[in-house]
Amino acid sequence: MTDTTDTIVYRLSANCDLEEVEEGKMYLGRVQGFANFGVFVQLNDRVKGLVHKSNIKADHSERDPIIVEVLQIRKNGNIDLEEVMPQVYRTESVTKAMPTIRLSDLGRKIGRTVMIEAEVAQIKQTSGPTIFTLVDESATENAAAFIEAGVRAYPEVQLGDIVGVVGEVMQRNNQLQIEVSSLSVLEPEDADRVRARIDQALDERAEPEDMPFLVESDVFERLRPAMRNVAKQIRKAVFTAQPIVLRHHADADGICAAVAVETAVTALIRESGGDFDAEYFLFKRSPSKAPFYEIEDITRDLDFALKDNIRYGQKMPMILLMDNGSTEEDVPAMKVTEIYGFPVVVVDHHHPDEIVDQYLIGHVNPYHVGGDFGITAGMLGTEIARMINPAVEEQIKHLPAIAAVGDRSEAPERARYLELAAPAYSEQHCKDIALALDYEQFWLRFNDGREIVKDIVNLSGNAERHMRFVNLLTAEANSAIEEQMEAVMPHVVSRVLPNGANLFMLDVEMYAHRFTFPPPGKTSGEVHDRLVREHPGEPVVTLGFGPDFAVLRSKGVMMNIPRMVRELRQEIVGGGVNGGGHLVVGSIKFVEGMRDAVLDGLIEKIGQAPI
Amino acid sequence: MTDTTDTIVYRLSANCDLEEVEEGKMYLGRVQGFANFGVFVQLNDRVKGLVHKSNIKADHSERDPIIVEVLQIRKNGNIDLEEVMPQVYRTESVTKAMPTIRLSDLGRKIGRTVMIEAEVAQIKQTSGPTIFTLVDESATENAAAFIEAGVRAYPEVQLGDIVGVVGEVMQRNNQLQIEVSSLSVLEPEDADRVRARIDQALDERAEPEDMPFLVESDVFERLRPAMRNVAKQIRKAVFTAQPIVLRHHADADGICAAVAVETAVTALIRESGGDFDAEYFLFKRSPSKAPFYEIEDITRDLDFALKDNIRYGQKMPMILLMDNGSTEEDVPAMKVTEIYGFPVVVVDHHHPDEIVDQYLIGHVNPYHVGGDFGITAGMLGTEIARMINPAVEEQIKHLPAIAAVGDRSEAPERARYLELAAPAYSEQHCKDIALALDYEQFWLRFNDGREIVKDIVNLSGNAERHMRFVNLLTAEANSAIEEQMEAVMPHVVSRVLPNGANLFMLDVEMYAHRFTFPPPGKTSGEVHDRLVREHPGEPVVTLGFGPDFAVLRSKGVMMNIPRMVRELRQEIVGGGVNGGGHLVVGSIKFVEGMRDAVLDGLIEKIGQAPI
Amino acid sequence: MTDTTDTIVYRLSANCDLEEVEEGKMYLGRVQGFANFGVFVQLNDRVKGLVHKSNIKADHSERDPIIVEVLQIRKNGNIDLEEVMPQVYRTESVTKAMPTIRLSDLGRKIGRTVMIEAEVAQIKQTSGPTIFTLVDESATENAAAFIEAGVRAYPEVQLGDIVGVVGEVMQRNNQLQIEVSSLSVLEPEDADRVRARIDQALDERAEPEDMPFLVESDVFERLRPAMRNVAKQIRKAVFTAQPIVLRHHADADGICAAVAVETAVTALIRESGGDFDAEYFLFKRSPSKAPFYEIEDITRDLDFALKDNIRYGQKMPMILLMDNGSTEEDVPAMKVTEIYGFPVVVVDHHHPDEIVDQYLIGHVNPYHVGGDFGITAGMLGTEIARMINPAVEEQIKHLPAIAAVGDRSEAPERARYLELAAPAYSEQHCKDIALALDYEQFWLRFNDGREIVKDIVNLSGNAERHMRFVNLLTAEANSAIEEQMEAVMPHVVSRVLPNGANLFMLDVEMYAHRFTFPPPGKTSGEVHDRLVREHPGEPVVTLGFGPDFAVLRSKGVMMNIPRMVRELRQEIVGGGVNGGGHLVVGSIKFVEGMRDAVLDGLIEKIGQAPI
Prior knowledge:
The structure is a homotrimer. By secondary structure, chain A is α/β, with parallel strands linked by helices.
């Protein structure tokens, strides 16, 4: 569709003043209000005129669009208008010479009035002004619009709109703010242009720096594209003021992975401008109870996300899953994220199920490139954190070593990260930190313990306190383990299976201290470790069970736990069998009343496994 | 007591200025402060004068009342006073011509100074001004009094006082506020007059509009007065800025009832002026764990209410119970509400015990007028919500259909509401929504999930998201039910009782997945439904039990569960038997060690019930 | 090291103005910024000059120190400087005649500019100004520094710094605030001098008044020094704006102790100035689940303390333990407080283990001076509360009587406190209040219930409401106990032990209502009381047990429960035995599978105890 008419109706952009208005020209305005003698019309937020009642052609309501011709601009600045109704016309924008500037340039414009084109990333009503968080390709900054204490300014502006803002730049110390004098949603074509410009520039800005990994690793080299992608997605979320919810496995490896990214992201948020406390409401770290993203987790995350969106005008969050998120068990929760349009990114080292990938915009997993769980989440997280924000490298580069010993990695990268951490962090100290993390997280009960955890991994800049605290936690944890072992070891029952494996069984609810550290899974693990040491070179399987669950650990026995679970589920009618795991560790759930049948079936299968 | 004296001492009202002061007249003032040369006296918040030390007759402290005569009003506005001590006198108020206006008229007085007489409904100290929420017969508005950042202005004014306020009206967009220039508690006689005026007008304003019900229903017609009363009480709470705590049964019917009222009330709060976020702190919806108002619930509600009252100056709340509240089990909690003066309103369809009514200011229950539980709480709630706020009808009119199928109503109203909801909501879709509500509430763990629930019942204006989310939740719920049935059905034990009833028994703790959806009660219900389908036309009783409880469902057997419980309690010494229910569904609690005796006794009684 | 040079470089103190600058003298300044024509130098926050580029001797960065000589002070106030580099010099401070005033004198300086020297006790960024809470020897007050909305003013100032502040005093009503015009960290020598002055004066100010106890008591007289010390530590925390976390046993005695101190402390915080809501964030009361300070408790307290410190600039808290804290079981948590430098104070009447004292800065315990548990925590807490703040005596003086009957004290002080409380509080009414506290705390689930509890102990000034509420709670509690007794009493099994003691055994999980009031421990206690009444004069031991615990109560049997536990732990391999108690009451934990062995062993030992 081409406009061939010569009749032009001008639209006065938000940054224009009286100077840009010309007598004799037609403008698209909006009805502002009514008086006895006529109708007031806004040409933009700053320029208003009057259509005398004798010059009105139609009935209007407030905020109706209206086309007017400028009859006269008086010396006192009053504008006399006439309503006109051209049949055919094209519209054209009038923009002031004042150039729009990038948000990153605000610092050089302090005290001056500027024009900004940006996306609205949050709209927060305070008891004073309304705060619009603006994002463009270069930075995030706040614009404060004050109408009246506690009253929403510019109610027509919505989250995600592309707006033109004119205002004065205020600054002292290291924070900037625009005091809005006008703010309006751009017309669709302008908005499209600005959005395209912002998107392209953001895409470039979000691209991580090229850098070598902290240690040599073939697996890492093959994972590089996936890791860069995840780092880029996270950087983009930060640059567009999108909240990030980081869910992670609540063990030492998961915590290290998550804290590395937390360190990188919160520093990046602080640098990127915006609210003085943005690092608290734009980033949340939540340990998960289960080793996967449960329905209960997504329900809680969705509940908060929708409430923050409706009440505080925040964007929907990105979900970042670390040390979980790779398996079929995560799918129900991911289906929810899909419906709500939450982008999801996974950094995991559990054996991945292909089905999850359809729900993800990024997935780092060593199994994708021939690696395995020996490349721990803490290693991956730390390398990604460097890509997100290289400035934090020195602070976090010891975290992979902690993760490696915590997760008992046997990959070659383990030694390299330990070397990198040494001599400041010996292998024993890394083990102590990992145990301290597990112990403290148990008592934190799935709270993030943000500042406590920083002390444990020595990120709060108080090395002496770190050392004393880790020593204390390690001593307490070891004494609790010792006490648990004293209670349970006398109750371990052993038998030799047909395949020659030593099976050790323990009822961890009947014979262990409950609701304290170590919990049943860790208790079984400790028992297993001791039994393996007592039977060097022999095949050992440890089966810790409670009324409706069993935990399996093995050494030297080739069990396929997922297949065993599938078979038991088939064979034992009404057993309610469920569960999973890897070759050497797994867990099974069943209904309490069928425990004996399930355990018998399970033991039979273990006895058939190759040694 | 009659005043016969001609000596008059005037009281200068809050809205008076220097113009209203006359030389030679006597006024009742207050000592404001001391100087070398005399004592400053306030005639009201705006008019002050000086008593020279030579004219002081007595010792005074700050804020003491004092009677003064005006010697002279100087050109610069200074007032010279003399202390006087008339033996006999009467007082009379001087009020300025300035008329008091209603809060609803503020919108027409923007930029002007007005006088308001109103009740103080909240006093909130902010880090800036003190915000007094004012209520009169017409509206709720905020008045901001600023003394100093964070300092309580007018500390003598208390919650519930009737005050006179003079201030300037500020407004832009759709919110109003009074900037206080003077604020004072009215003298008792004035206060009584104003309170009477406000009360009467509020009473009229709170009266719901007359309107037909959404569907034809004899029961509804007979319930109309009770429903109007409840709607009126709720409207009055909103108009007087009284917080409302809505407690409801955490199932699909209870949620529908509560969400209908939530929609009506929050919209009414927004319309009624006051704080920009009043809809959040003046309305709280809380699903209850038990099917009644537990001691634990009222303890929590009371804890918050008292803290909000002391710390944030809020009124004590109204309690609204939906889909619970009608039975004896609610009485202990209601006794607490009585002591604290919380008004309580019940909308329920469980068989009511008369004893509750002494604690209530409103009670809607179909049993009161010959109806029964087929008139679900969701139906009642939706009709009452329309009375509260007719504007929300279009949004909520499909909720009764969801409630009807969710609660398996067999009342004739069920079909009528389904017809009303169709074709947008088919019967199957209503069933799906009801199941989705049950499923999601299970994972919400008694959080309200305000925005999530709106999506499930399609109140957030995103029909596509609603549809996809309900489909997902329904699929997940059905698959969880299917898995539970696979585990439990092989363990159902059956026997034929002396009266010919088929009794099916299931241990729902030993043979079901625990701590997941469906929970024991719903598991028993699903089992029962399947067994009924497998035995068409036969009498069926399903008994799901755990270590210390049993859940009963029946079809075709005329059990009087409350009586059976009473008898068992008598007969089984040390059984600790408790519980209740209706004809077809009930639950029983007992001490674990007496389970066999209780179940045997129970089965014997079931075997004697008429078929 | 002595300065012998005559060359003096002056440092201009924060309160100095242009008047204090002299031409020809040298000053130590700081580089403020750069211009084409030279370098701007600050002599202090208020006095700036210019070094023309021709007078610069070296390269500088922003905020570098620089020594300058004043060439000329122009009429317009501009100062011409020259950079100088004296080889040998001594520095001297120039201070304005303006005297520094104490914070407690602010009230007499309203509207005037003052100089304050004080410690920074909190730095809170608001969405408006930055609030520095200042503490000196006399009071706590806030200073507001505004740079820009939401921007941290004076970022170089840290928590705990000694600062010089110049600003205007603002006040109306009863709150004061300094509007900062300059604020700077004092040089080390000045800071040391001020800190010494403040510390000494605070020490004197914190000293409690000398006063007699409410009742005569030898034990109290001997405890006086320890009580004074604890009161002083608490007063000092209040005066220095250090948060206090009060952890207490969740029974009637612990609550009375804690509420007495809460009343004293919150009133003292209100008097001491600072934020309008300081009493909420500087004082937290938390009932503990266990009868000691658990790892879970300290983890939670540490989590919040560190977050408040990092995010809201609060000091690390003092921990006050009441009715717990005296035993070995508290040590693991105390080790954490030691590492984080949280001072800990204990007021307890359980038999103390000496090991705790190394972690404490104050410990009141009657056993230290030959008293015993008959001197209840509520008695101790009330007397200490009076020392903290004598003004609250009238309000709290009945609390020891409630604590005494609640804890069944048989000390002579019991009768004296009851006499003091009478006739307003009869012994029966005190018992009712104690029962009401236990009952309501059960439903509060370890929330503090701040305002509810005040009503129960009649501290909220509404005596009628108090009376009705206590009557209701007592009736409900007694009816719940009655119902529990009906369930359990028929299941009590008795036997006569070799030593002639009557042993009564009850499985409180199998035969009692669970998850309701009364909980297992109280259920056992009630059973014991009834059995003692039924067997007057005979030795009675009641053993209530569950799957992995047992609760012991005895009358007339001399058991040493701690020793019995130690022996059982030795004798029963894999029993996991733990626990403790006094002579007449104790509890034991064990692993479920070894219950029979542990109970048999325990009963054997009870049978050998002397009667």
